[in-house]
Write a structure and sequence with these properties.
This protein is mainly alpha-helical. It is built from 5 helices and no strands. It is elongated. The chain starts with a helix and ends with a helix. The relative contact order is 0.19.
Length: about 110
Amino acid sequence: MRIAAGVLMILSIFGGSIWITILHELHIYGIPVFLVFIALFIAVLGGIAALRRKNYTLAFVGAICSLLFPPFGIPALILLVRRESEFKEGEQEGEEEEEEEEEEQV
């Protein structure tokens, strides 16, 4: 489910393009468009973090930002929250690998 959440957050780029098109057609430029770009960027970064099983906080913030881009945000957030434990497992595995590397270097 973590992978599905990451993919949905990355796919929110299509929802972001819809928002940008709507703002452009309404002749709204500047700060609103910039805010959409920032939220879209954070959503994509969160999707990448979810796929790599790194930094749950970034993945969660990305899922929150992807809520702005329907229909991808709500399922991404639900799937991510249900699989928070996968991130903790990944962090523990990463710490064990680092310890093994340090032991090999010594």
